[in-house]
Structures are given as C-alpha cells and as structure tokens.
Amino acid sequence: MQYLNAFLCGGVLCAVGQILIDRTNLTPARILTGYVAAGVVLQALGLFQPIVDWGGAGATVPLLGFGRALAKGVEKAVAEQGVLGILTGGLSATAGGIAAAVLFALLAALLSRPGYKR
Q: Is 70 within the bounds of a domain?
C-alpha cells in the first residue's frame, strides 16, 4: 500500500505542475520555485507531516520535500544557534542533496555528448 500511496501522491503533485504549465502563463522555473516555497509553508504550518505519513517518498522526493528539508533545517539551527540559524540551517540541512546534484550533473556532462538541438 505504501508504494501505491507514494505513486498517487507523487502523481498528483506532477499532475498539478503539468496543469499549471498548460493552463497558466507561469514558467516552469516559477512553478518549481512555487513548489519549494509551498513545501516550506506547509512545513511551517505543520501540514506537511500528515502528507508525508500518507504519501511517503511521493511527498518527500519532489520539490515540496526540498522545501520541507530547508524549513526543518532552519528550525533545528534556530533552536541550536539562535538567529544565526536562519541563515545557516537550510543550507546545512540540504548540503548533501545539493552536492549530489552537482556531482551527478558533472558526471552526466562528462559522459554525454553535449550539443545544440537544431
């Protein structure tokens, strides 16, 4: 059942993003940024955990999950360091994911044949 819930949750999030692309003038970059911001807001309001409890990886892997990780990192750092944690918490909480993304992008660039589409 966990797999089905994760599939449904991730599918709904992707479908909403596709609807926003098709029906609005929002650019994909603005939609992606909106998803990250929505993850932060949902975590701050305490509404994200029930979604995670139901959807599992379908909720935590997409961009909403990245926003949640940023918010949780800030929350933890503020509790430990005070106001300075506002600036450092999000980056320290997501540093591993960001480093992995940069590494895999570098590997993909080195292993593929870059070129322009015509």
A: yes
Structure token digits, residue 101:
């993304």
Q: Is 111 helix (H, G, I), strand (E, B) or coil?
A: helix
DSSP per-residue string spanning 49-60: HHHHHHHTHHHH
d(CA 13, CA 61): 11
Q: What is the pLDDT of residues 2-18, one digit of tens each?
A: 999 999 999 999 999 99
Average pLDDT, stretch 31-43? Answer: 94
Is the predicted pLDDT of residue 86 greater than 80, yes or no? yes
Domain that holds residue 80: 2-111
Q: Does residue 117 fall inside a structural domain?
A: no
